[in-house]
Backbone:
């Protein structure tokens, strides 16, 4: 028979391998999806260059981190990247504004169909991709420094006396805190400030907003700045947690689109919820529950297989699958975004 | 008239560019570029059928190309009988289970009206199906993959000549397109783009990880060729005679017989590679011409007119009694079939199937650049785009290295900046591609060879 300790052990196991990683991955996806959803809501096109914009922002963070490290500036137990982040945000925002002025503005003023903007974003994607690879190279970069763990699995076991430990990496906590702050600031901005309200009005009904005296150029610029900020934060957090590789960031585009569409594209709250749902399903569907059930079930019922719904090979494919299912069954997403 | 002249001049320029590569670099490289240009042109035609004729935005090109490549493996490889006897039964049974589950779900959707009951029943069917699959599929897969994993470890193919796979690849891709189209074509353009991108990634994931099907990332190499092998060619009497006849001038100048034979042998070895490439070119050109013939016929027929009317004004076409969904599905299947054919041809040309090499930048977005730059809606335009962009894709690398050398020539040989710049120069070709796309889109949105405006 399973005792109380066994049950606690089972859930500690689940927290360590599912809950904690899924929360940090979900936060990174949520930040990325917020950027995509804002661009879609205001500029009305699916921005394929967002993954590469994330890579660009992260690259700037890494360059600043290296510079600070060479000057022996650091934040003690926190990673130096946190210090570099504000500079990277400023530079990436400027970069995004340059892109808007030189590429997207023309089509926006000409009232081109969204598909043309989408194709233009593919061109931008190629160019940013080349710039990132040109400057920092296509290889893996690790730029994490500072204290690695908040609680190690061993320490946790000692403190609680359980046989399963929960390890919490400091990057995971940083991810969660930064995401909470960023999302709260964004929602405050969108719901309480005049500019934020103007943005929402513009997204809801462009003509009506223009009639009410909303300046479209200003709205678009602010949207790009916010999107670039979120992209830099999301990219840096992902890079701190795992590692930075331009190609991986390009591949992140699909889970991010999946999150935005699942939540309802154009809806900020939907993007956040979508990000966590995608992250949890990716990790939960590929986790092998064998040990979990060994703790919970009596010996006679113990599973023989791995009790894994899908092999880990298909981790990335899950988000695409969810994306396709959502698109087919409920294209407006959970929070009724813009129906296309 | 001017249109026609422009087309001729564009293709002439392209032809001279390839000749220039032959003269300045090597003929072998020139032919290699030419062959891939041909395949790119066919892929661009496939995308043009979907985007240029009907305005469907399919960003899943890579998936269809890979399915075509799979066809090349499944047609040409000899069957692995041991694997079939070990796990073939289980695999067939699993496929059967999948089909039954899908059929039952369709029945439930048709027959049962209550939404809650419908959802519960569908969910139960899927769960039961998964449990059954687990029972038959996994043991079958592991027993197949256990058989001689270093060499086979998969079911093998039909053992037929590989050229048949060019048709089979088209059929495979068409079948997949039928499924995908039924699911996604109701969506509007942006969503269709994202959905197809996702589906193509799923296809690649399956090809990478289902080892029993095509060895996954272990790759299938040494596919049979539709053209002679160099080694065999070098032994044929007629080939040696042909070479000595062509190079008669050069050979007759040499008096010593030993030297003459030595030179002849070198020439034969050198030209056998060229000859193989020319054989491929011949095959590829004939396929391209056949597809182009049908594309032109289709575009100029009432069917093509209907497609354009649907593209330009869906509501009006619908009001005239055209079934938009049906026509979209049709054109989606046709375009995908062409992509599948191109995929099978590419795998045949490479002589190997490597699922790991399918990357969206190269196999989806690059093809899109070809169509946009060449001229969407114009068949010859897409072909020109395929040629031009592929040429640029290959030649951008030496060009950017050359440009970097000029740029950094004032810097010292040992300078860190110089070595970094030189090392990173190849990545500039992505930059050039993006720039070409953006410039075309901005200043010449209809492409190099725009679609003909037809007036009645």
Residues:
């Amino acid at each position: 028979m399973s005792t109380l300790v066994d049950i606690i052990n089972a859930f500690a196991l689940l927290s360590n391998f599912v809950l904690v990683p899924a929360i940090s991955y979900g936060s990174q996806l949520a930040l990325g999806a917020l950027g995509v959803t804002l661009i879609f809501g205001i500029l009305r096109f699916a921005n394929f260059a967002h993954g590469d914009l994330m890579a660009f922002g992260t690259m700037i963070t890494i360059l600043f981190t290296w510079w600070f490290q060479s000057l022996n500036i650091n934040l003690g137990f926190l990673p130096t990247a946190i210090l570099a982040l504000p500079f990277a945000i400023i530079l990436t925002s400027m970069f995004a504004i340059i892109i808007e002025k030189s590429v997207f503005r023309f089509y926006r003023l000409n009232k081109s169909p969204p598909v043309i903007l989408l194709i233009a974003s593919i061109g931008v994607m190629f160019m940013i991709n080349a710039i990132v690879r040109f400057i920092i190279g296509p290889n893996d970069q690790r730029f994490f420094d500072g204290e690695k763990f908040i609680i190690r699995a061993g320490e946790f076991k000692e403190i609680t006396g359980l046989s399963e430990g929960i390890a919490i990496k400091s990057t995971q906590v940083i991810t969660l805190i930064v995401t909470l702050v960023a999302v709260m600031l964004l929602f405050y901005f969108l719901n309480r400030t005049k500019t934020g309200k103007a943005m929402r009005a513009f997204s809801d009904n462009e003509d009506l907003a223009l009639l009410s005296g909303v300046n479209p150029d200003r709205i678009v610029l602010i949207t790009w700045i916010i999107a670039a900020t979120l992209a830099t934060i999301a990219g840096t957090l992902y890079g701190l947690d795992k590692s930075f590789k331009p190609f991986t960031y390009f591949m992140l585009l699909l889970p991010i689109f999946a999150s935005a569409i699942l939540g309802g594209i154009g809806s900020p709250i939907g993007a956040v919820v979508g990000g966590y749902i995608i992250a949890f399903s990716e990790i939960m569907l590929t986790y092998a529950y064998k040990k979990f059930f060994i703790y919970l079930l009596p010996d006679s019922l113990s599973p023989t297989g791995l009790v894994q719904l899908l092999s880990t090979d298909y981790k990335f494919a899950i988000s695409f699958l969810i994306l396709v299912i959502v698109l087919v069954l409920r294209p407006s997403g959970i929070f009724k975004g813009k129906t296309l | 008239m001017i249109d026609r002249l422009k087309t001729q001049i564009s293709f002439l320029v392209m032809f001279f560019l390839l000749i220039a590569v032959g003269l300045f670099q090597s003929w072998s490289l020139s032919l290699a570029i030419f062959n891939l240009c041909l395949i790119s042109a066919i892929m661009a035609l496939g995308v043009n059928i979907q985007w240029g004729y009907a305005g469907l935005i399919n960003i899943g090109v890579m998936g269809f190309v890979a399915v075509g490549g799979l066809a090349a493996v499944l047609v040409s490889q000899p069957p692995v009988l041991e694997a079939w006897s070990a796990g073939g039964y289980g695999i067939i049974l699993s496929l059967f289970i999948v089909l039954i589950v899908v059929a039952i779900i369709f029945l439930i959707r048709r027959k049962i009206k209550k939404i809650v009951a419908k959802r519960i029943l569908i969910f139960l069917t899927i769960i039961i199906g998964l449990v059954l699959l687990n029972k038959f599929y996994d043991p079958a897969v592991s027993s197949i993959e256990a058989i001689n994993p270093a060499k086979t470890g998969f079911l093998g193919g039909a053992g037929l000549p590989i050229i048949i796979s060019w048709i089979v690849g088209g059929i495979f891709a068409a079948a997949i397109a039928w499924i995908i189209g039924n699911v996604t074509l109701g969506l509007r353009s942006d969503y269709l783009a994202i959905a197809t991108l996702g589906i193509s990634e799923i296809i690649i994931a399956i090809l990478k990880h289902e080892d029993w099907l095509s060895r996954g990332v272990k790759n299938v190499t040494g596919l049979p060729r539709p053209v002679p092998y160099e080694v065999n060619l070098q032994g044929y009497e007629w080939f040696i005679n042909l070479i000595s006849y062509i190079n008669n001038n050069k050979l007759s100048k040499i008096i010593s017989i030993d030297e003459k034979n030595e030179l002849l042998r070198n020439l034969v070895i050198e030209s056998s590679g060229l000859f193989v490439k020319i054989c491929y070119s011949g095959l590829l050109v004939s396929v391209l011409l056949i597809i182009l013939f049908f594309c032109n016929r289709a575009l100029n027929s009432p069917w093509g007119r209907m497609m354009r009317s649907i593209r330009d004004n869906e509501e009006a076409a619908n009001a005239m009694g055209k079934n938009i969904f049906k026509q979209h599905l049709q054109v989606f299947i046709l375009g995908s079939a062409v992509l599948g054919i191109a995929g099978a041809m590419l795998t045949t040309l490479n002589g190997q199937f490597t699922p790991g090499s399918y990357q969206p930048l190269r196999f989806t977005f690059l093809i899109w650049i070809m169509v946009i730059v060449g001229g969407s809606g114009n068949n010859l335009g897409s072909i020109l785009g395929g040629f031009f962009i592929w040429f640029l894709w290959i030649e951008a690398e030496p060009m950017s290295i050359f440009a970097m050398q000029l740029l950094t020539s004032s810097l010292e040989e040992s300078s860190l900046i110089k070595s970094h710049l030189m090392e990173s120069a190849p990545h500039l070709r992505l930059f050039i591609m993006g720039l070409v796309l953006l410039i075309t889109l901005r200043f010449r949105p209809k492409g190099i060879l725009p679609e003909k405006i037809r007036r009645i």
